[in-house]
Amino acid sequence: MNQIKLFSPATIANVSCGFDVLGLCLESVGDEMTITKTAQPGIRITEIVGTDLPLEAEKNVAGVAALALLAHLQPDCGFEIRIVKNIKAGSGIGSSAASAAGAVFGINQLLGAPLTNKELVHFAIQGEKLASGSAHADNVAPALLGGFTLVRSYEPLDIITIPSPNELYVTVIHPHIELKTKDARSVLKENIPLKKATIQCGNLGGLISGLYTGDYGLIGRSLHDELVEPIRSILIPQFDELKAAAKTAGALGGGISGSGPSVFALSKGKETAAKAADAMSAIMLQTSVPFDVHVSPINPTGIKIL
Ligand code: ADP
Predict the structure, then answer these.
(1) CATH value at residue 141
(2) 131 lines ligand 1 (CB under 6 A)
(3) What is the number of structural domains in the chain?
(4) Which residue among 1, 69, 82, 163 is least enclosed by CB atoms within 10 Å?
(5) Closest residue by CA, ligand 1 atom 25
(6) Is 181 a catalytic residue?
(7) What pLDDT digit, counting tens, does each position of 24-56 carry?
């Protein structure tokens, strides 16, 4: 096999109380990537369709992640990467992660899969470091492994896949305003009061437990971010209205997707998720800000070979 074509999915990181540790994988939005083995060593990004991103490997997250993997595997060949970008960069639904994860997944497959998808996370996060200044794994891990993933530890990297109930659906709305991950990080506080940490731990434990047991009520009660959302949501106009509208429409709860500006809601059933999408769209239509909205089940497998 000399060429591979992939669907590399969008993902939601910072799932509410799971800041920097809990992510989930979407099914209905993603990039397409074609990776080709070449005799010439190194990485060349030949084309990016749909958006204006750098083609130099060292400036593109796909290239940076791929080069990190090549430095480790030392193959006697190189690779060309072509990306059809359907996930807008800076949207907060893992645009950079889709490219980084797709690149390392495709190269690993073309080399006969010497590494597991879990092992590939380490290389994909080198790309994330370029995009946001922090090597966070809560987008690339669900992209590579599917479902919900928990980063139990960064040093050493320890990633756990969390099962979720079949009827759990995601609504995610992307207001077309620019909010850089670096800027969204700069507003965060270094230290947190013990009382707030305790509330966050309780909710994260509750959310994980609700996902395992399919207890939608518990999932809803636990979708509360005590630490980051109150600070970051100020950067997202209409955040409170969007979240309230989704809940009034029947969603279990929601929060900021990644570092924003996208806002997500989780619902039991596709119908309720679609109602949440309508309610959130109605809020956006009262503004002049363009937006797009997606309804998706949880993608259980992550990146797919097409
Ligand atoms: P998202 O959460 O949607 O991934 P980020 O702000 O974390 O958004 O990352 C997007 C940043 O990474 C942008 O500055 C973009 O220029 C840069 N970037 C470099 N290569 C890529 C790529 N292949 N795909 C997406 N973004 C890229």
Answers:
(1) 3.30.230.10
(2) yes
(3) 2
(4) 1
(5) 96
(6) yes
(7) 999 999 999 999 999 999 999 999 999 999 999
